[in-house]
Write a structure and sequence with these properties.
The structure is a single chain. This protein is an alpha+beta fold and about 220 residues long. Helices cover about 25% and strands about 30% of the residues. The strands form 4 sheets. Strands 1-2-4-3 form a 4-stranded antiparallel beta sheet, with helices on one face. A 4-stranded mixed beta sheet has the order 5-13-6-7. A 3-stranded antiparallel beta sheet has the order 10-9-12. Helix 1 (about 30-40) crosses helix 2.
């Protein structure tokens, strides 16, 4: 009996124990595509998909399903790799409308961010609102989505000293990421604005306003008024 041919892709698949695989794409931009494909076309035997900044952890229901699941993951990785041009533009799921987040750009670190990037504050706002962001993964706190955007080619250092209290709805930047704090918490991101939207609500289904793979557009409420 001949074996099925091994499918090549730009993603490394490693065993993580006997009931999980870690997918490591050569290009971190493929993380969103992998999650979208695995969520849209579930693989039998997969019980959970846990994305991070540059990897996706896939957990299985049993040891026996591992060989078959690995082969299916190779197919998924190959498909996403072939579709990479679309993924990098944030169009892997073109039917999903972006979540629009109204922001008042009144953050205490806006001037500092502008100086760091050698821009004026209004130019920071213009660049932040012009980009279409995508939620690569959720972490740190429930509903805290790490947003990335091909159109945001800037890196903002975290604060030297973290704040002990950041209000819910604060919009921040750190590295190449942007995020909205879903609840009051400590944090070291540079704060550039605030939103009145509730990012995490346990009485809502789903509780998170922004989920993995979702696209996000920030809207300057002062410019819109």
């Amino acid at each position: 009996m001949s074996r099925a041919p091994r499918i090549r892709s730009a993603t490394t698949i490693r065993s993580a124990g006997d009931r999980a695989f870690l997918l490591i794409p050569d290009d971190p931009e493929q993380v969103g595509g992998l999650v979208a494909e695995l969520s849209g076309r579930p693989v039998a035997g997969v019980v959970d998909i846990l994305p991070a900044a540059e990897t996706v952890l896939v957990t299985l229901d049993s040891v026996r399903s591992a060989p078959r699941v690995r082969h299916e993951l190779e197919r998924v990785a190959a498909a996403v790799s072939a579709a990479q041009p679309d993924v990098s533009r944030g169009t892997f799921t073109p039917t999903a409308e972006p979540v629009r987040i109204p922001v008042r750009y009144d953050g205490p670190d806006l001037d500092t961010v502008a100086e760091t990037l050698d821009l004026r504050p209004d130019q920071v706002i213009a660049a932040h609102t012009a980009a279409t962001w995508r939620c690569a993964f959720v972490g740190f706190a429930p509903g805290f989505g790490y947003l990335t955007a091909p159109g945001w080619q800037r890196s903002v250092p975290r604060r030297d000293t973290a704040r002990t209290r950041i209000p819910a709805g604060s919009v921040g930047l750190a590295g190449r990421w942007s995020a909205v704090y879903p609840r009051e918490t400590p944090g070291g991101w540079q704060l550039i604005g605030t939103t009145t939207l509730t990012m995490w609500d346990t009485d809502r289904d789903p509780a998170a306003l922004v989920h993995v793979g979702a696209r996000v557009r920030f809207v300057d409420v002062d410019a819109a008024s």
